[in-house]
From TrEMBL, chain A:
Keyword Transport: no
Protein name (Swiss-Prot/TrEMBL): Mitotic spindle assembly checkpoint protein MAD2A
Keywords: Cell cycle, Cell division, Mitosis, Nucleus
GO terms classed as biological process: cell division; mitotic spindle assembly checkpoint signaling
From TrEMBL, chain B:
Record-linked Gene3D superfamilies: 1.25.40.430, Transferase(Phosphotransferase) domain 1
GO cellular component term of the entry, any: kinetochore
GO-annotated molecular function: ATP binding; protein kinase activity
BUB1 N-terminal domain mapped to chain residues: 49-218
Biological process according to GO: meiotic sister chromatid cohesion, centromeric; mitotic spindle assembly checkpoint signaling
Protein name in UniProt: Mitotic checkpoint serine/threonine-protein kinase BUB1 beta isoform X1
Pfam family, one: Mad3_BUB1_I
Amino acid sequence: MAARQLSRSGITLKGSAEIVAEFFFCGINSILYQRGIYPPETFTRIQKYGLTLLETTDAKLKLYLNNVVNQLKDWLHSCSVQKLVVVISSIDSEEVLERWQFDIECDKTMKDDSAPREKSQKAIQEEIKSVIRQITATVTFLPLLETACAFDLLIYTDKDLEIPEKWEESGPQIISNSEEVRLRSFTTTIHKVNSMVAYKIDS
Amino acid sequence: MAQGGDEWELSKENVQPLRQGRVMSTLQDVLTRQENASHLAMQQQKQAFELEIRFYSGEDPLDVWDRYINWTEQTFPQGGKESNLSLLLERAVKVFHEEKRYYGDPRYLNLWLKFKNFCSEPLDLYSYLHSQGIGTSQALLYITWAEEYEARGNKKKADAIFQEGLQCKAKPLNKLQCHHRQFQTRVAQQVLQGISEEGGADAADAGFLETSDPQRVFLAVLKGKGKKKQAPVNRTTDVVKPLNVQLPPPQQVPGSSRFKVFDENVVTTPGAELHSLTPQPWAALPPAKAKENEQRAGPWNSGRHPHSSHVLEVTSSLPSFIPYVEESAQPAITPCKINPTINGVLSARKPGKEKDPLQRVQSHPEEKEQKVMYYKDKVCAGVEEFSFEEIRAETYLKKMRKKREEELQAREQRRVELVQKVQEMERLLNEMKNKEDQNLVEQPTQMSEPHAMVSSSPDVLKSPEQQNKDAVFSHIVLDPENSPAYKSLSLLPSSVRDSKLQLKQQDQDQLCSLDLDLCASTLSGPMPISFTVFDELLPENHPNRVPVPCARRPLAPVSKPQVPIIPKGGGVMPEVSDDLAGIEPLNEEAIVTEHNDKTLFPIPEDTCDFMRAACVVSTPFHGVTAQRVESEPDSGRTINETERQPLGEQTPKCVDSSFNQALGVKKLSPILEVSQEDTRSSVSSSASSVSNTFVDHVQISEELVSTHCRASITNKTVFCFPEDELLVVCCGELHRQLLKPFQNLFSSSTNFHQETELMPMIQEETNLKLGSENYCIKQEVVVDEANKIYLGALDTATDAMVAIKVDSQPIPWDFYINLQLKERLGVLYQEEFQKCNCFLYQNGCIMLYEELTSISVWSIIQNYVTIHENYIMVLVYHLLRLVEKLHTAEIVHGNLHPEILFLGFGIGAIVSCNKNISILKLVDFTHSVDMRLQPLSSLNGFPIIETQQAQQILSESSSPYQVDLLGIAEIVHLLLLCEHLQVHQEDFKWKLSKIIPKYLNSELWARFFETILNADGKSTVSVLRELGEEMKPSDSVYQDLRNFISFLV
């Protein structure tokens, strides 16, 4: 993996951005698979972080995700992104049913030319592994998504950031009356990612 | 990085996912709870639900079951036996089995769908539901049914189900359509995939997911890899199923192609007929629960087809296929013969024990021969059996609860009526007043008017107890012979009684005759509920009270309190009411109608109640009319109630005894009005006398204030305040007026700070900025509702505490008192009182008293049961000194109690070097009265008055200073004996009722109490000085005291 090359020299800003972006790519794929947004047969297995993860084979989706991830990488590099949110809403009623929120804390003191931080690749990978495992385990309490759903990606950035083409401004898409569960977080010492999921409880 | 809130992840295997999701908080709770605690709580909740099931009397019993089941699901994430969920569901569906009205209820359908999870054959269940018409109007049924088929790979049937649902127009229709569409899309996709990959005849039916991934074989043995011999994550490598099995599974039994061995990898073929969806009567239901590892009967090598194939193709079985029943009846013997004697564990399974729950539901036990003689339905209603005692207990509790509710309601109603009555009365009396000048001729009309007006009120206040009340009213007995001088005019809560009537004894006859006339003419409708209401109140408190002769008890030479003072807690009730025993007549009705309980107004004395009600209801009147009628100032008779002058006119009056009897219990009509003309004169005279006394008492120029406050501070009575607020407001208003001229004085004082903003909210454990300092609030010592005292500490870590007194009124009364003390005491001020600062906000006032410890006398009393006598003496000495200084400065504290006396800071040091400084500090001067400014001659307005002791000991001729003496006595009593002061009279002197134990210097204390309790007439300053001399501790005691205090601190 790309990050491995940096393993000996510690984590740089660029490296951290890559790690986080990769995590998001895998994480989003997992969510899409777990929640059944896309049919399971469109996913293929890959090995990553010591886990068997599922990645989509749908070309369009793949392209879209790659775009997002690359853009995200840039923003992570410039430390201008605060959150990434995966919003799952029903196609028919356009109601937001689930909301996966990843808060990103960036250490702004880290610049390109700063000394790399000490943290082993392995440790980071373990952390990411446990987050993804936890995402899978959320099935214990998440309600079944009965209707066909679609997903949206929202990214919270700094105010003055230019909106790239193909992106548009949007509202937060918060769920009213939601249950929130905080999940694990991981950190590369430069970026810290906290995760949580909010879902609508049907009483 | 496992965090505390991750139990759910760690126990994820033990948590069954629910369709509707789980509430995380409940889940966390359940998973983290300790065994015992959780068990108990859960049991209790369960019990509550069970109870509810049994005793539910509402319209919708399904709701109870629904909630119960939801709770069970959330609370027992593992499902499992503990939760009894399957049993619960089974019961639930069974209970409502007959209730057709729930057939269309989505909740009921949900119950069934949850139940399906416990059944061995869900498809059977669906068919059953369909045939019975349960939930057939709900889209959910069809959706889940089709899902079931789809999961089994039977797309055609799934589609058929959808069609059926659409035909039935199941609700919500768009949801059904949406799911159908999605299903169709899925099928189409799969078909496309199938076609592209397989290209076979049965591709259309293939619902089988073909992927090119290597797939694991089911139940293959995992081979450990690597050093640790752990099965790797990627487990598909070793044993891989051959992909794309195209060929249909080989027929195991050649020749008889009727049966196919079920191959889970291939969808069941069209051998399973499309099961027609027509409802069919289900005679017998298929299969017993599919047991694991079950092998059907039959010798191994017989050539007969295993029946097992049928079992799994059950979905399409027709009801008439009786063999299923028979099958289940066959014993399932494991092929390997086990000698049961040797190996008890694996004994042959007996048939019939584990019947399909669905089967159980459907079988209707026919037990016509048996009749159950106990309330079996109640016992077995829920999942668990209830014992008879539990059931009985619940019914009893229910009854009690209901009764209590009714009582409360009745009381509430009565209160409302009372209040309305009051208003009515006021209105009427006002009118009465206006007609004062009219002559006698017009009397009857006038009388009938109010009567009419009053009688209109009953219409307004219709109550179920109307009849009762009327009857009650009729008994408003005023036994003339019994009440020589006093007519209890209990009729009108407002007025009546009293002195006015006393004056008019001679007019009795006249009145009576008038009454009779009135009566005759007014036997119309139900009379004044007002009267009856009044009566009822009485009996509530004294059901046993006989129409005691209304003769008032003559006043004891030592002053007895004249008015029932309403104790805050109502605890004094019986005693006080004894005073008034003679006043109200009772009527049997009232006695019969129960209620020993406390009423809204604890004192049964009607006028007091009324006054209270009046205060609550109509403040303006309260102030103006609360004038005492001093009917016979010289008779020594005290007037027990305050009366409202205008209302007094409506005194009902005296009834002839004969008349009284004639009325009987159930009769109506009463007398209402009285001869106004007779009373009027007396009223006016008494009114004038009242106003005279009134005028005398007015010292303060502001009229509004005076009417307000003086009303309470009238000569003969101790006024009863309904609420604390009123008292405070009263004083607040008064204080505000009093302080007007002193504004300049305040602003020039260095310790006074006027702040422009609103008063900050103060709470424990928060910081408060006052002036330039920050204080951290440690503790709250509540004095009463309007004032709070907090203990705080400066942020800088000295041990000195400060007391912060918060007043909700922006009136710096305390500060004023302190200023006066400073002025008048001069040098001595430093000894007794500490520095204080005042912060005046827009909406409140904060007083800051510095240099205290957190120990109050109250805490000493509470924490140290036996305090050495010497220490008590020291405390008492200082207390006496303190109060002496106050009195010297002509200030009455008015509310001495242990909670507001704190030990000063740095006592140790103080004590050792300067014995003249007081160790006790006061932090509250709310009720203090500056006698120079506000010379009072009565004791009203002091909270202490409301206590029993005060009423006993103090009379109207006591000076206000004695209030402080009483306060001191109370505190000392508490310190000595840990009990409130109790006194009795002996030889015209007040003595302690409790004997001072021997280990204390009883002589000394006896003298102390005697002096302090019987200090009538003497100057309190001298009394205090005297006592102080006695109590003055010696130097050695001070030494000990230092130790004691350091021990305390």
